[in-house]
């Protein structure tokens, strides 16, 4: 994703992933034994005992270096320009990923499958994801699309715009993203704007606080927080989303 090339003579044996969705992919590929650390956001039982380097953006570099990784997987983007420079200065190979869209997740799966010598397993995971998404599309194909705003919380609330995997999931689940005209991938939107849009439902992850004014404007549908992790669970996320938007399609 950074436009650079890396070459390995053999699969890396000590990997640190700063991207939770990429970490989950490594676990799914069956190579979790190569992980030498985690971020504060990797909280599953399989990873909890690994040392943390803090956040995925601007991690604790001193702690990172002590883990002696031969590959660091990091976010691509302008949010953190310090980490790639610091890794390069220390001679630590780093692979940039950016899981904005469902297609990006498929590409990262394939890429990590190649890097870790698990091409067949990666192909199998991609095929499973594609089947899951296709089945959801089939179930809602004849349904009228629900006009939806996906809220990520905050004051004012942040919404998912076009060019995001959330927008992709809405499309798969038979919804129309009412913020398809948003100028950014994600951005805060005023309550007044949310109240004036033609919206059939708001969708949020469980636990997201929503203004009572929005509850009065349209139904608020809750889904698993897994929808906000762009990884192997996207097929299940699409199905869960479709179930709350088109429950009759699953009876």
Structure description:
This protein is an alpha/beta fold and 251 residues long. The chain is 36% helix and 14% strand. The chain has nine helices and nine strands. The strands form three sheets. Strands 6-4-8-9 form a four-stranded parallel β-sheet, covered by helices on one side. Strands 1-2-3 form a three-stranded parallel β-sheet. α4 runs antiparallel to α5. It is globular, with a radius of gyration of 19 Å. The model has no long low-confidence stretch (mean pLDDT 94).
Can you write the helix and strand succession as a string? EHHEHEHHEEHEEHEHEH
Major sheet attributes = 4 strands, parallel
What is the oligomer described by this structure?
single chain
Give the tally of β-strands.
Answer: 9
Radius of gyration: 19 Å
- How much β-strand is present in the residues? 5-15%
Shape field? globular
Which structural category fits the helices and strands? alpha/beta
Low-confidence stretches: none
Number of helices: 9
Let me know the average pLDDT: 94
Spatially, the strands of the biggest sheet line up as: 6-4-8-9
> What is the end-to-end distance?
42 Å
Q: What share of the residues lie within helices?
A: 25-40%
